[in-house]
UniProtKB/TrEMBL annotation:
Protein name from the UniProt record: Mitotic exit network component
Organism: Puccinia graminis f. sp. tritici
Domain of life: Eukaryota
InterPro entries the record matches: MOB_kinase_act_fam, MOB_kinase_act_sf
Signal peptide: 1-19
Length: 140
């Protein structure tokens, strides 16, 4: 295993805790709109030390974060009005921003899979999505 691969895998292992934190955050955020997210409204959801890393370690993490991304995408594109009304848009924006930096840093999701939120991602990268704009952001 190359040193670069080992460093990447060690970093991912350290950030698995972040992945669990993302799961907890997205679960909490999604829980706020479950009454609006019914099968009728949303029929399809559009994310050890001394041991060798499993060969599927990175692909497993990628699969998890892809599924989490789909939940963020669903919240932004189907339930942002409810998120806004509930007064938790800043929480959603902060959670997604943290998640986006994580997946971007470790190149965990292919760029073409991020297209549904590309405008938001561009705002995050450019630094335009800050706390002041979070306060002014209106639902679509």
């Amino acid at each position: 295993m190359s040193p670069e691969t080992l460093i990447l895998l060690l970093n991912l292992r350290l950030h698995v805790i972040l992945t669990l934190d993302f799961y907890n955050q997205i679960n909490m955020l999604y829980g706020t709109v479950t009454e609006f997210c019914t099968p009728t409204e949303c029929p399809v959801m559009n994310a050890g030390i001394g041991q060798e890393f499993p060969k599927t370690f990175k692909s497993t993490i990628q699969s998890i974060v892809r599924r989490l991304f789909r939940v963020y995408d669903h919240l932004y594109n189907r339930h942002f009005a409810e998120i806004y009304t509930l007064g938790i848009k800043a929480h959603l924006n902060t959670s997604y921003r943290h998640f986006f930096f994580f997946i971007d840093k470790f190149d965990l999701i292919k760029k073409d899979e991020l297209i549904p939120l590309e405008e938001l991602n561009a705002s995050i990268i450019s630094g335009k999505l800050n706390s002041q704009q979070q306060q002014q952001q209106q639902p679509k």
